[in-house]
Amino acid sequence: MMVWLRYFSFVPILLVSACSSPTVRYHTLASADIGVQPVKPPAAFLISVLPVGVPPQLDQTPLVVRQGASGALVLDNDRWLSPFSEEIRTALATALVNRLNTQDVSGLAERTGAQPVLRVHLQVRRFDAWPGQKVMFAGDWSLSALDAGHRVQLLCTSHFTQRAPGGYEEMLLAQQKIIVRLAEQIAINADRWAQGYRADCV
Q1: Helix/strand/coil for 86
Q2: Can you name the residues that pair with 89 across neighbouring β-strands?
Q3: SS3 2
Q4: What's this model's pTM, rounded to 2 decimal places?
Q5: Do the Cβ atoms of 66 and 130 come closer than 8 Å?
Q6: β-strand 62-67 against 134-147: which pairing, if any?
């Protein structure tokens, strides 16, 4: 009888522990509304958005936010749907396809004699978020293509700061807006540079 009482009194403790687990929330950089773009003719080229380089301290599933001048906080209960580098690549590719009216052929076999393919490569230098304040982005990116059998390249850099008043939802929205702004800048340069591969960054 004593053994039964001891066992039975232990069960509620297990149940309370199981019910107290925090909820994990998942987020994505892919914007639900990337803006309605004016109808434009399809671009004369395809794009291939390559894997994105991200600093190791940011390229993880939990969200990482800044605190003050040097602090950082890992939000274990708020996570990206995929590794941060892939979140950036997917969101950037979606926005570029939308703005250029073209196709992202990354991961597909290259076709000879078809439309030229512009490779887009992004190296993120910083993507820091201060909840309730701002999001800062810095990155280098390149466009490359084959011209008469030789690969040519355009190297550019981007810096953006986006206000992020409010809580984490506003911070995530600011991060999405920065990716959209980056895609707009890359798209403008891609349209110009593809016409002879001689234009500089704007």
Answers
A1: helix
A2: none
A3: helix
A4: 0.86
A5: yes
A6: unpaired
